[in-house]
Amino acid sequence: MLGVGIVGLAVTALACGPAGETGADRVRETGFHGVVLETPVAKPDITLRTTDGRPFSLRERTEGALTLLFFGYTHCPDICPVHMANLSAVLDRFAHEVRSRIRVVFVTTDPERDTPDVLRAWLDNFDADFVGLTGTIAEVEVAQRAAGVPLAAVESNGTDSYTVAHASQIIAYSPDGFAYVAYPAGIRQVDWARDLPRLLEPQRFLAAAGAQP
After folding, report:
1. Which of 33, 166, 60 lies closest to 107 in space, CA to CA?
2. What are 44-63's pLDDT values in tens digits?
3. What is the strand order of the sheet 162-167 is part of?
4. Which of 32, 90, 200, 206 has the greatest number of CB atoms lying within 10 Å of its CB?
5. Do the domain assignments include residue 209?
6. Does 158 have pLDDT greater than 80?
7. Per DSSP, what are the bridge partners of residue 153?
8. Is residue 100 assigned to a domain?
9. In Å, what is the CA distance from 172 to each residue of 31, 32, 158, 181?
10. Closest CA to 172 of 100, 83, 68, 97
């Protein structure tokens, strides 16, 4: 298993909903294709390093933007490249005034192999504006705890190569600095295209659906 499913965000329950709930159920109930959090979660106050070696304070550097935070690694065979490719394809379709208000932040859970050059080159395959962050394993673990996702774990296959089990969800922090929705693996481009503009003002759509913002 290469991606850890939706789990608790800090002390807030982030569950996939009632047993048998589908994406269509979520849209019908909340208007969003992602999982609406029971309680909004504040953007964590974490600082890591960009691929050019500069410190990056998540709160300060993404203030006022819709921030999509994801923990993954470049050797991931499925979840990571699919999430990044889908986001890249959808963002390319948006007008500049919408695209400029959205930041994608990718934190590596495999800093040993994901050197700054490797991470930057990998992200550039999708979008040169995607922010790549790294640090020591301990620093990345601190960031994962602050974001409320499970810690990544190395899974050896008995050879020199290995995989990394990591959280599969993208956490969407709206411009007000709070996450109202998280997106598990399997979110399609059409889903992102519908939800991203709504995430710029989620309170209005959640209120209209009768959900608690």
Report:
1. 166
2. 999 999 999 999 999 999 99
3. 3-4, 162-167, 153-156
4. 32
5. no
6. no
7. 165
8. yes
9. 15, 12, 36, 6
10. 68
